[in-house]
Write a structure and sequence with these properties.
By secondary structure, the chain is of the alpha/beta class. The protein has 8 helices and 7 strands, in the order βαβαβαβαβαβαααβ.
């Protein structure tokens, strides 16, 4: 069955092959008990998988998303089914005020933040540089990297010693795909931002790490890539397939947990065997 082409940001409902977020497989063991967590882009994909895992590990979750209301409500229901508090927050992260509002909503709901996952991203496929407009270039940077700066800056007064910040980079930071030039460039920026910020916040006891996924099957793929790219998506990895969102979730759990107390400044690849230097 061919995958229907979608308009960005894409929805789970329109996908013919649904991603596996760990709905039926993830088993928690209390590793994040009592943690107050925020995940951007948590309506679907990697963000939903992290939200499910966090909740089943004992964390409350603020689910930030752009406009995918039905997907976000499904994620919230899964968090609540795990016995944890779910807060839905609609936000356009290209807007500075809405980045700060997201943090305000989390603090109002939870009283503070222990784990911040900056996962939301925008991408679009282009064959030539001429196809990329100034507006799209700026929007990609606003959503993918500038939002991280704004959200973290707003969250810092509410992050105590032992807090964890986890940014989603990409295999593209090391092996940029030319047809994803604006996106890949932001992912390189995220890698450097993470490495620098980990050093800057170390004396406060705040850890900063990044996850670098390879090709993961999410609504972003059929909504931002042409059908022939979608058909071949992930087949060029050593494992020969795209990853499922659930296969990223354990890394986010580790980095969010106190077990990772000496891990900071790391970029953890989840790439199906593609090496990252």
């Amino acid at each position: 069955m061919s995958e229907p082409q979608q308009q960005p940001p894409g929805t789970l409902q329109a996908m013919s092959r649904k991603p596996d977020h760990g709905e039926d497989s993830y088993r928690g063991s209390g590793r994040l008990a009592g943690k107050r967590t925020v995940i951007t882009g948590a309506d679907s994909g990697i963000g939903r998988a992290a939200a499910i895992a966090f909740a089943r590990e004992g964390a409350d979750v603020l689910i930030a998303y752009l406009s995918e209301d039905e997907d976000a409500r499904e994620t919230a229901a899964l968090v609540e089914k795990a016995g944890q508090k779910a807060v839905l927050h609609r936000a356009d992260l290209s807007d500075a005020a809405q980045c700060r509002g997201l943090v305000d909503a989390a603090v109002e709901a939870f009283g503070g933040i222990d784990v911040l996952v900056n996962n939301a991203a925008y991408q679009m496929t282009h064959e030539t540089l001429e196809e990329v407009t100034d507006e799209e270039w700026d929007h990609t940077f606003d959503v993918n990297i500038t939002a991280m700066f704004r959200i973290i800056k707003a969250a810092l007064p509410h992050l105590g010693e032992g807090a964890s910040i986890i940014n989603t980079s990409s295999v593209n930071y090391d092996m940029p795909r030319p047809t994803l030039l604006p996106y890949a460039t932001t992912k390189g920026a995220i890698a450097n931002f993470t490495a620098g910020l980990a050093q800057m916040l170390g004396d406060r006891g705040i850890r900063v790490n990044a996850v670098a996924p390879g090709p993961i099957w999410t609504p972003l793929i059929p909504s931002t890539m042409p059908p022939d790219h979608v058909e071949e998506f992930g087949r060029n990895t050593p494992l020969g397939r795209p990853g499922e969102p659930k296969e990223c979730a354990p890394v986010y759990v580790l980095l969010a947990s106190d077990e990772a107390s000496y891990i900071s400044g790391a970029i953890v690849p989840v790439t199906g065997g593609k090496p990252i230097l």
